[in-house]
Amino acid sequence: MRILVTIKTALRALRRNKLRSVLTALGIIIGVGAVIAMVSIVNGAKAQIAAQIASLGQNVILIFSGSITRTGVHSGHGGAGTLTVEDAEAIRREVFGVNAVSPEVRSAAQVAAGNQNWLPQILGEGTEYLDIRQWPLVEGASFTELDVRGANKVAIIGQTTAQQLFGDDSPIGQVVRIKNVPFTIVGLLTPKGLSVMGSDQDDVLVVPYTSAMKRILGVTTLRSILVQAADPKLLPTVQQQLAELLRQRHRIQPGRDDDFTVRSQQEIAEMADQQAETMKILLGGIAGVSLIVGGIGIMNIMLVSVTERTREIGIRMAVGAHARDILLQFLTEAITLSSIGGILGIGAGIGASRALSAVVGWPPQISIGSIVISFLFSAAVGIFFGFYPARKASKLDPIDALRYE
């Protein structure tokens, strides 16, 4: 009962200056809301990236050709052309636990169909590429091993490219010209959406890698090789075997740097998780500053309140109130103010996260943990910053308090 009376007294005191109480709680509201909104948006981004990484396929290992630097310009992975078709064939034959392999070359090239033209990504791939990526076709069929061996002029088209070149018409059987070389569309891919890097995965034309190398790019080396392990438990073993095999084939001496890079899907996911966690901590920390500022505001207002109510404190002590009663009253007022701000901040944070999700384009993931932690932190801010004013009020001398004007 005594606690209820103290809470009622605290609420009555806060209602005396409604505008001041609202402005004081505003710092807590903004702080809690910002923390919840930032964490939910980062969690949503993390889930979005995880889904995009999953779109690469299952148990995928990516081998990139080495980089090259010319006149101070670094080409990045794939620039040196250190991987060959023979490397891909050796991986298929000699590495235990490999389920599928697809040699890969990439290029952006102008594609024309009728009076329409577009600049999609051209992917030169093997016959197992769609199986590795788990990328089914809407209609049509994939190219065959005979198409690869004969460097035939056939292609599979992505949804975005098909829409740009053919509109709502079926692209199957249509002819497109890639650098004036005619290719017949034999398959239409299901939409995949954005990649991990934010590019449109559906803005592609997939052709046999031999056709891309001989008829489009005029190259003899690969940019990368996609490898699928038979089981996720085999990923580390397969990755190690790949590195050892390629070092042996490329005659790389011990102590020398590799002229290739091997990355597993698991490593990419872990790197994305680390970046997301770092961003979550950074944004949460920045938003948490608002809570500290709000706590300072509570301390300031409570000190003003003690000064304004000095005579009231003296009267209460004169009629028998103990120092701990005064301490509890002012501490309860601070906690009540911060807790109300925390509750309103939770609502503001949920609303802000949904509004932001409409802007950034991915659904927020509102964490119950972030809500609970934010509310408890707001209450703790009230205790921490409210204790000094409450203690100051409890230490007042009753005679001096009664004399205060």
Query: What is the overall shape?
Result: elongated
Order of helices and strands: HHEEEHEEEEHEHEHEEEHEHEHHHHH
**Which structural category do the helix and sheet elements fall into?**
alpha+beta
Query: What is the share of helical residues?
Result: 55-70%
Radius of gyration using CA atoms only:
33 Å
Describe this structure in words.
The chain is an alpha+beta fold and 405 residues long. It has two domains: 2-52 and 271-403, no CATH class; 83-258, no CATH class. Helices cover 56% and strands 17% of the residues. The protein contains 13 helices and 14 strands. Strands 1, 4, 5, 6, 7, 8, 9, 10, 11, 12, 13 and 14 form a twelve-stranded mixed sheet that branches. A two-stranded antiparallel ribbon has the order 2-3. Helix 1 (2-16) crosses helix 11, helix 3 (85-94) crosses helix 8 (235-249) and helix 9 (265-308) runs parallel beside helix 12 (368-394). It is elongated and about 105 Å long. It starts with a helix and ends with a helix. The relative contact order is 0.19.
Put the structure in a nutshell.
56% of the residues lie in helices and 17% in strands. With 405 residues, it is of the alpha+beta class. Strands 1, 4, 5, 6, 7, 8, 9, 10, 11, 12, 13 and 14 form a twelve-stranded mixed beta sheet that branches. It has a two-stranded antiparallel sheet with strand order 2-3.
Descriptive tags:
twelve-stranded mixed beta sheet; 405 residues; 2 domains; alpha+beta
Question: What order do the helices and strands come in, and which of them pair?
Answer:
Elements: H1 2-16, H2 18-54, E1 60-65, E2 69-70, E3 73-74, H3 85-94, E4 98-108, E5 111-113, E6 116-118, E7 121-125, H4 129-133, E8 137-140, H5 145-149, E9 154-157, H6 159-166, E10 175-178, E11 181-189, E12 204-208, H7 209-217, E13 224-229, H8 235-249, E14 260-264, H9 265-308, H10 310-318, H11 323-360, H12 368-394, H13 398-403
Parallel strand pairs: 7-12, 9-11
Antiparallel strand pairs: 1-13, 1-14, 2-3, 4-7, 4-13, 5-6, 5-10, 8-11, 9-12, 10-11
Helix pairs in contact: 1-11, 2-9, 2-11, 2-12, 3-8, 9-11, 9-12, 11-12
